[in-house]
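[09:14] KT: can someone run the structure on this one? pasting the chain below
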Amino acid sequence: MPVLFPKKQKLALKELSGAKTYLEHIQCNLKLPAKAIVCPLSSITKFVLSQGNFKKYNCEADIYVDEKKGISYVTGFGIGAPAMGMALEVLIALGVKELILMGIAGSLQPEVLAGDIVVCNGAAADEGLSAHYTADKFLLPSATLTKRLDTALTKAGLDHHTGPTWTTDAIFRETAAEVAFYQKKNILTVEMEASAFFAICAQKKVKAAAAFAISDELYQLQWEPHFGEGLMFQHLHDIYHAAEKALLK
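[09:31] RB: done, structure tokens below
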């Protein structure tokens, strides 16, 4: 006897409550600019706030709005696909139409080193959220927004890689066998949000792109952490600037 309701059947059904209904319930009448940068890390917030004139709001995330530029920076919602998914649904219900996800990722390939920048052009969905939005197992970002992000990095003189990621829910259950498997498929990185981010944005018909700074290396089939190193933070700052330029182009 099946224990779970079939996901393929679910995809054609309407939800009982959506983000707009939820916002009505909590009486959140915020209207956001159409452009937003989304970052699970809160550690670069101080830097971001120094780059503009932001007003802070809170609605399932810390939302910083620069009304003059017409862009929001969103953080403080937690790590992983479910936490990001709820915040993302709320942002879209509040009027956001183009979003860039930025953050950190682990490297699966020897040419991708700690501190490097990677523009994500696809995501293998090894998390639980995206299946509630699509039957696809490999999710794609917006080609046009990804190109604008890539161009912004190039014009800034920033070397970067472009390739797909493996999105997993279980950060402490990444195995050598999985890394070797995804290496053979030319997957560049591993992280915890991208496939769900792309799935929700595609289902809601909004544009999405993503880029990461490498925080750890797994390509030797062992874990080499580089969290908190200066180059990683510098390149997160660089990604933010490029994301802003790509969105406001």
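[09:33] KT: thanks! The domain at 19-248 is CATH 3.40.50.1580 (Rossmann fold).
[09:34] RB: yep, looked fine to me
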